[in-house]
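WARN no homologs supplied; continuing
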Amino acid sequence: MFDQPDDAVERMARHLRQPVRIDPALDERVMRAIATLPTPVRSTAGVAWSWLTRPRRLTLTPLGMVAAAAALAAVVLLYRRGPGPPVLPRTDTRPFQFVLVAPRATRVSLVGDFNDWDATRTPMRRVRATSSLWSTLIPLAPGRYRYSFLVDGAHWRADPAAPAARDDEFGTPSSVVTVGGS
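OK structure emitted
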């Protein structure tokens, strides 16, 4: 009873061990068919991507390394300095001074609608080196602006000398200033 399946497996193994005969002209037919295929057209973007992603060997001389390090240092210094005060259109703007008393602060930034709430765009300066009074002067066009002071990069403070703004969805204390037209 068990001899029959073993016999079937043995017959299949013998059949599979026999050499396969391949037509000698097969290679020639396949190569002819490949030669008649149209050449793929590569787009300009594909060629550019291929050129950009191709591995390259870069060799720097010591002078080249110094130049590359100087360029990198210049980029880092420019990035760390950040942009200056916001540049608003000159038409119908008025200088507006913001002042905060913060005796223990090491840095203060003015953030608001006028600078996209970006703490790096409007840093405030101490009035004197030993003073606790921080100030900045920025041009503002007529309108209503929400703003706040960011002390030491972590503490939000509303302006005690200005009306408080209604609470926003972030729970940040802020104030409102209205600049009149001419």
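The radius of gyration is 37 Å.
OK
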